[in-house]
Please model this.
Amino acid sequence: MTNIDTLTQAPETSRVPTTRSYLMCRPEHFTVSYKINPWMEPANPTDTAKALAQWQVLYDTFVSLGHDVQLIDPIEGLPDMVYSANGGFVIDNIAYGASFTFPERMPEGPAYMDWFREHGFDVRVPENINEGEGDFLLVGDTILAGTGFRSESKSHTEVAELYGREVVTLNLINPSFYHLDTAIAVLDPLTGDANANIAYLPSAFDTKSLLILQDRYPDAIIVSEEDASILGLNSISDGYNVVIAKRAVGFERQLRERGYNPIGVDLSELLLGGGGVKCCTLELRKS
Ligand code: ARG
Model:
């Protein structure tokens, strides 16, 4: 992996990082005690101290890149709370709350909404099941919205009305890629669709959705099954630096070829719960 300050070759396009604000949750109570996705095996042991150490590296990486990182207190008995991407969807200082699919995670919805309220966000209680930024991705001015396993498509309509932005529904078909953020990485989340680009795994989508992606993002990075299978797409970009899974070496090379700066982190312990870099990160867009 290249460090931010050691990239010497001229990138094909000049990529511009922008400072972000993120919400994260320390995995103090992380374990795998139930199974709500194919990655989770409650019979296998987990190591909370290791999860904490790996998570800390991700936190430190964001801070070293100059981003603002906010923290929500973890709650005992909610082992998946570390996956803060599912806690809501925030644009224009409006926080659309999450309403979880499975009872095991349901208490997280109100906990995240309380945090948003206490931190000055305009909170909207959701009417439909949705798992926040796990299934809603802002790409330029467009919101890509996933359904098939978790968020209901009715929540897509709700989000379109709430933010007055175009929402594009995409159908996920592989249970291992159950949230949209496991199948698509947003690389250039700047305003203006002309500047926007993504990376994705074609086989995670039905034919109709795939045609939409091919049509809208002809320059997208197509990642390999191998990289996607360790949740390599579950990454965070600031427009230049892309924090990815360390083992996603093909994706790392593809990013570098396009002038991005991939930064690898190892979240193997959190992968046992079915989450990676992006799952542990919720973007707080104040405007
Ligand atoms: N165990 C969690 C679940 O299945 C993992 C969530 C991963 N989050 C994400 N944004 N993809 O709900």
Observations:
- The chain is about 25% helix and 20% strand.
- The radius of gyration is 17 Å.
- Confidence is low (pLDDT under 50) at residues 4-12.
- Residues 36-37, 40, 80, 83, 85-86, 105, 134, 179, 181-182, 273-275, 279 surround arginine (CB under 6 Å).
